[in-house]
Amino acid sequence: MRKPRKRSFAELVLENKSQLLKDRAAMEKIEQRLEQKRLGKAE
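Predicted structure:
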């Protein structure tokens, strides 16, 4: 088996950044849903 090529630091930074942005969007969706549930129960 061939060894995978080592990634440069810049590539790792870009990958982490894109992953965080995706996660942040997912977290915001989850938070909005939770807030809607809370508002629904309060009424």
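Summary: The chain has a mean pLDDT of 86.
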